[in-house]
Fold this protein.
Amino acid sequence: MVEHKKTYRRNDLVQLLLSLAILVVIGFASSFAFAKIDLTEEKRHTLTESTEQMLGSLEETVYIRCYLDGDFPARFKRLQKAIRERLDEFDDFANGNIEYEFIDIYASEDDQTIGENEEALYEQGLQFTRIAYEENGVNNYQNIWPGAIMTYKGKEITVQLFNSQSPEPTDEMVNSSINNIEYEFASKLRMLMRDDRPAIGVLEGHDELLPIETADLVETLKDDYDVERVEIGGRVNALSDKVETAPERTNRYDLLIVAKPDSAFSRGDKIILDQFIMNGGAVLWMIDPIITDLDSLRVNQQALANTNEMGLYDMLFDYGVRINRNLIIDYQCAPILLDGGPLGNQRNMQLQNWYFAPVVIPDANAHPICTNLDPIHFDFTSSLSLVGNNPQVEKTVLLASSELSLERKAPVRVNPAIVDFDIDYFRNGPHESFPLAALLEGEFTSNFKGRLADTLVRDPNFAFRETSLPTRMIVVADGDIGRNKFMPVEGGFAPLPLGYDRYARKVVYDNKDFLLNAINYLLDDPEMISIRSRTIELRKLDAESIKDNRGLIQVLNVAGPLLVIAIAGMVLMWMRKRRYTEKYA
């Protein structure tokens, strides 16, 4: 019996040592290999393949300083936790080349130091969010900095991780930011890794928007791209150069922005612009097919909107889109401040629905360019139609008016009395959703195919192409979508942020992010857009059910785990007793 017991003990000891040895081997091997299983429906803990490849190609360490730290509401704690988890995932695929820290700039008790910290972050391009919260029955406000500064190979770039300026952000807003964490970090890191910055040309010479009117968008683009204003002026080399050793011309810009031209393009300028596209150049068109005299509207309380003949419509039609000469009025619109008549000794200024300013809210199935964007503001916009049967060109509607929209064909009488219309006016009319912005991508046919003299077509210096290299263009039937307002300051004018609403006195509309996403996509970064298109569903608890069953839920949360542990302990004791009873029987 004694020998029998010793044998069992020896076997148990051997099993224990073998188990420990196996665990040590597995632990040692896991330090050299990385693997995990993501069981979530949206694969929220899995990076996209393009991000993994980019992280694996890092040559040096990336340093990230995140400033979302300190004592703040729980929803931002959730955002902070998500940022940590995502950066840990980045490090898993970057071979240890990701180092990050969270910094609380309000940890100091010295007000001067805090002020200097805030000023330094603001000068580096980070934006703070002022949030409201209630404490002991008193409403308080607090500044938080949901952003980071990323450094790689001596270059720095800012990463903004929460963009809403609402003092009372919702769970949906925070969840949208969580969706975008990978996109924000990966897109900025990709920019740091680029050896050459893409070049963007902002077209001028046809009464386009003034520099002050595009200042906010252009200055933001300059952080990541080389941007310059360019006038064609009939010059063949304005947009491209001819290298003697190459049979084709080489574009000087990767992207051209055409922002609300208001005069006709000459035939020469159109040919040069067409050949820029044929050589693979991308274009962001922001076109106003209808001209509205706002001065007449202010003075005479009415205006007549007429067609804007720029000479571009035939080109765009050949590429695959027709811009209609109409104005779209939409019940889903922005407000306008109008005089409602006398009120004692003062004017009765009231906010009214301005149906000539549609507000577009991208739907859940929107193109990645528009995913997770706040409302986008249009002003005297027209509609567009997708046309043509070129199988090499893929066409996608990006933004459209609401279903409570009506069309007014030019010429259109613009009268402030339209604010008196109610929703029944839109419901009873032939309302529909009208496309306002579209994406075209593929191989386009030249608008001048078969229309030029043979001497020009055969000219090796001109190097005419009748079919384009693969490229993209986005057409928006509103020239003001990229126009920022500005205010007078000492010595001139200062631009206001694009999307700024004078009545709310803050940025309300996501025009800027839409255009930045569009430019990012046009510059051939579809991988980054695919990352942005990922959505993580916010699965909320049933508030009514929680309220009705509060006591039961509390009991289950407290007693449930203890009961499970007790049952598991009893089962293990029973199994252990049965095992050793059989051994020593």
About this structure: Residues 359 and 377 are 5 Å apart (CA to CA). The longest strand covers residues 346-360.
